[in-house]
User: Fold this.
Amino acid sequence: MPSLALCTAHFDYVLPDDLIAQTPAPKREAARMLVLERATGQTEHKRVFGLVDYLKAGDVLVLNNSRVIPARLRAINARSGGRFEILLLEENETNNWWAMVRPGRRARPGCRLLVQDARGDATQIEATVLATNDEGHRRLRFSGTTNLVQDLEKLGEVPLPPYIRRSAPNSMTRDRERYQTIFAQQPGSVAAPTAGLHFSEALLQNLRSQGVQMCFVTLHVGLGTFAPVKTEDLAHHVMHEESYCVDETTAALLNQARNTGRRIVAVGTTTLRVLESVAAEHRGRLIAGSGRTRIFIYPPYDFKIVDALLTNFHLPRSTLLMLVSAFAAPRATRGREMILATYNEAIRRRYRFYSYGDAMLLI
Assistant:
């Protein structure tokens, strides 16, 4: 895609710290929902349970069923006793992971780290640093366990994003429940697909009862979802890579919906990225399969398959804010102004932002 007039600085805004949600809404579907009508720019202010008023029989709701793993581990240096924090990023193979390790300068290749459990007690599990990549991440080999993934529930902590603050590790036990969608199945994410956090079983049932169909894709969310774009020219940004899977049932349902003119509604930017990645490769059709995507969507963008989007409010200068701006006005650049104006309205009305925050529906 050629370089555009828009640059990273055009996607900046100022958010008061007290609007960064530190806890979830008392009930999932009770979060506020700002509705943006893309054709007119008009907005309405609802609650997520009001989604039933905007979807109709025949619409297909697509959700990301990736499961957040307890990816934050504590460890000590086997020789010095120094303390380390490990944040698992991606599994290469069983017991072999890329991870962020802090303090990184002490985690040199060959270093052995003794993993502690969630209470801080010693375990038989060790992590050996094998290598370091250009991003400063460490490749770790775990021993003392048949499969680390199966032990994470007793070892790890919820990998909350850095803007959600807790007084101590595991100090809010409800994070294990609420930083997870109720339909999560496939383990692998180190950050929640946050738009999906707003759905309760009651809301899903209400939508089904009025004829809304549902299906799932999987995209394992990485830490890159929080990363700001550091290049001023958007065309020079190197997008983070994430793995996805689309099954036969989902592909067939969405292709049928597209052929019959029914709306496809993506829950979350992660879901949208999967659908648009696959559709872009297959002339607007969904083909079942798995792969990895680096798709970077920013204005102007011609969307191939998604007709409406439920999402949260995103960080300044982030790829997700750029994606939402592109969706607000497909094939044009004016969506940036529309989204920033809508964000300013949300700030004036004191909506709650980011992962545990309120929702936005673009129709």
Summary: The chain has seven helices and 17 strands.
